[in-house]
Amino acid sequence: MPFIVFLVSMVLMVGGFVVTGYAFQAVGMEAVLFMVGFVMIMASIALPIEYGYRGNRTRG
Prior knowledge:
Blueprint: H1 2-23, H2 30-51, H3 53-58
């Protein structure tokens, strides 16, 4: 399970970087793309904390 969480987290982080970087080139959708990329990066940080080894150890 931790390896799958790691892979999903990395995909989210790299995808968030790409979407956030693309926000600087898109005309008219800058704020939306930036916020989507920001949420993807934050999800990639929160996912291992909630569902990784540390999260499983603290739950019951």
